[in-house]
Amino acid sequence: MGESALDGRDKPKSVEDIDTLLQEVVRYHVFVACGELQSDRSGFEWNYKTGMKPIAIPALATPNRIDYPPKAIIENLSKTLMGRTSEIDYWKKTTDKFSVPAGSTVRFMTSKEGNPGAYDLQISNPAIYTLTFTVQRTLLLNNYGFLPTGFEADADTIKHTRTFNIAIKGKFEFKRTTGTDPIVQEQYIQWTDGLFNGLGKYFEE
Amino acid sequence: MPSTSDHSAASFSTFIKSAIGPVGATIVTLWVANTYPPENPIWRYLAYWALIPAVWILAFLYWARRKWTGFSKPRKTASAIFAACVIVGIGFGSLLFHFRPSPPGQLVHSGNQSTPSETPSQPVTNPIQLPHFPTPDEIAEAIKRNERVVQTSTPLSPLIKEKLFSVLIPFNDGEGDPIPQYRPKNEPAHFASMALFYVRISQWAKVLWTDGISRNQ
Predict the structure, then answer these.
(1) What ipTM is given for this predicted complex?
(2) pTM of the full predicted structure?
């Protein structure tokens, strides 16, 4: 049976292309998750024992909170692979806010600017702090034929599926001096702990 | 030999002198009661537990000295009582000086807590204050102050926190969807679900590579 015009190029095939896609997507999800953690959220949870129930989670307290300008977010995203998706339209139309401490900048850094071979998301105010999430694929084995827990596929799909392990390293650095205000320091620590714990639940539960 | 009138005059004089102490103590007590409540709690405390008892003790000692002197008690005893009066007076005077009100801005110790002393124009009903929680404006001001301080004060080693997460993403490079279907048994609903995360990867993989966008990256 002959291949269609799209066959062979309707998805990335090479490891480099898959790496590019997955690391960009995971970095973008870290960004989205950080935004959601700093907003009031409501939803529901369910399991087979207790069924469905509503939940409401208050926003994580951002020190000296401001809303990052949507234009700056769009400008940043436009420089990444995600800039070619409908996410740009989402950020143009949405009323959702991405909160940061006042004076901060958000950067989606390439491997040339940040860590070599990695995709960095950096939220920082150089005078006070730098929070960097580095996304990088770890060692890849030729592990065709296995699926992680929770995934389902037919036997033929499983044969062509291999699992990529994407690591996200969060690093927070707070500049201290002899005159650092302990209140401010504590605010930033709580904010960082909240983000790290929230992302941990998101990616690992 | 003194006459009867001379003796009466001497007795009256002794009586007047011996009454000075109790009268003075009564005047002080009435004055404190009249001016209650005083503006400063430390004075309220001293008035009730030091000043009034002190003046009454002093008054008693003074009265006792006059009485015993007047009835020709041994001079040694009278001198001892007088010395006791002086010592007790100096002691209470020192106590009053030690517990005098602090100027506004200094700390007054109250039990195990330290509270700012109050100005005379602001009566205090509860000298122990609740812990102060910073307002957003105070935090903003503290951050600005911190930025200025960073540039002017001595740097210390930075505070660093690190955490590592990881996520497994199966990717199908054959026929069908790039990401196999994800059906967790117990989906945590903290916010956007992982199921949605995987669906979006599938969608974006198709869109981006169908358009050949990756080749332009």
Answers:
(1) 0.84
(2) 0.60
